[in-house]
Amino acid sequence: MSSPLDEDVPALARVAAQAVSVLNDATAESVDYPGLTGPSDTEAVMSALGRLADGLQETVAHLDDYLSEQLREHRLKPTPGGSQTPESAVASAHSALTEVRGAAAHMSRLLNTAELAMLAVDSDDRRCPALPCLPCLPCLPCPVLSCPVLSCPVLSCPVLSCPVLSCPVLS
């Protein structure tokens, strides 16, 4: 049985890049935003992209660690005719990957800020599926649910079966 950890990592990275390309097409103004049905969709996309940015920080750190390990174990050789030693190449990659991690962290913070800003705006698409006359409750950072903002089941669950209604934070 195959595990995601057994997969071809470069292929997984290509799938992620392709997913972002499809996401770009689905949110394009030039074709009237086909993948967006309301402002709450933008919040959901910002939340998911924030998680992607968080994940990119970790993935980039893993790549950096891997390259350092490869260098320590003397598995890297200079390219014939190349001008860099493995040490200088890994040092350059480390510097660039450190900047990428910082940029991804910054992107994550900005996406979270944008997502939170949109919570101040009510829209018709943020309605309870069970009782459409009521707006859905925004997810609070509830210790019981341990959910990040907008990744909470509240936004998609019927009010009557919503776990947040019994949350001690709201009581």
Report on the architecture of this protein.
The structure is a single chain. The chain is mainly alpha-helical. The chain is built from 3 helices and no strands. Helix 2 runs antiparallel to helix 3.
User: Main sheet, how many strands, which sense, barrel?
Assistant: none
How many beta-strand runs?
A: 0
The backbone outline, from C-alpha atoms, is elongated
Percent of residues in beta strands: under 5%
Alpha-carbon distance between the termini?
Answer: 46 Å
Mean pLDDT: 78
Which class of secondary structure composition applies to the elements?
mainly alpha
Helix content percent band: 40-55%
Rg of Cα set:
22 Å
- Uncertain runs with pLDDT below 50, 5 residues or more? 128-135, 138-171
What's the tally of helices? 3
Order of helices and strands: HHH
> Quaternary arrangement of the chains shown?
single chain
